[in-house]
């Protein structure tokens, strides 16, 4: 029987103004960046439910019991405010469950969590990711910064495996370069198995009955350029990490 993964985030809408002399007009686009990660997980037997940001805002589960229907929850490029500000709360002042606490409780009760880097995970651009101030911080193996944590490397920076770990045992060769990552600080209990420019790249932790992991760069462009996403070992990264997380 396939294991179930809930992937939240990895979507965005763009609204562009085009100015051509006296005249101007507007275009809008909707894009997602989940396809490489989703394909890798499905290839390795996982059933993936994808909640784009605008859907996750209302449909991400409100109870730990609902989350227990999934073997692993992945947060990728989704800001904490998307879960902290349901429409009913923001527009009508109606109380709703704090879903960052729901995620924490899910992990403590035996679930698994993976946070993947991006402009709105960890701290993110202008610190708008805001995950440090949530209950999710309690079950992450790294400390999220309270300032903009993006480390932009337009010239490329290469991650390095620094410790043997079951999750990375199938990875062969050196890592491709990435174009940036979220800087974090490893907690005392963290098992940091890969670094990027001296900062945590992949780290694991155990909390209560559950497990968590971080992957501090993106799973898709732009931080993970095509040569990273098309790397022969790409699928093995996610298989290894998620296999370790869901293993009891």
List keywords for this structure.
two-stranded antiparallel sheet; 8-stranded mixed sheet; Rossmann fold; single chain; 8 helices; 248 residues; alpha/beta; 34% strand
How do the strands and helices of this protein lay out in sequence?
Blueprint lengths: L2 E7 L1 E10 L2 E10 L2 H9 L2 E6 L1 H7 L4 H4 L4 E5 L3 H5 L2 H6 L6 H10 L3 E5 L25 E3 L5 E8 L2 E2 L16 E5 L1 E3 L4 E6 L2 E9 L2 E6 L10 H4 L4 H13 L2
Parallel strand pairs: 1-4, 1-5, 5-6, 6-14
Antiparallel strand pairs: 2-3, 7-11, 8-10, 9-12, 12-13, 13-14
Helix pairs in contact: 1-8
The radius of gyration is: 18 Å
Indicate the CATH class.
Answer: Alpha Beta
Q: What is the count of helical runs?
A: 8
Helix-strand pattern, N to C? Answer: EEEHEHHEHHHEEEEEEEEEHH
Structure write-up:
The chain has one domain (3-246): Class I glutamine amidotransferase (GATase) domain (Rossmann fold), CATH 3.40.50. It is 23% helix and 34% strand. The protein has helices spanning 35-43, 53-59, 64-67, 80-84, 87-92, 99-108, 226-229, 234-246, and strands at residues 3-9, 11-20, 23-32, 46-51, 72-76, 112-116, 142-144, 150-157, 160-161, 178-182, 184-186, 191-196, 199-207, 210-215. The strands form four sheets. The chain has an eight-stranded mixed β-sheet with strand order 4-1-5-6-14-13-12-9, with helices on both faces. It is globular. The two termini are 16 Å apart.
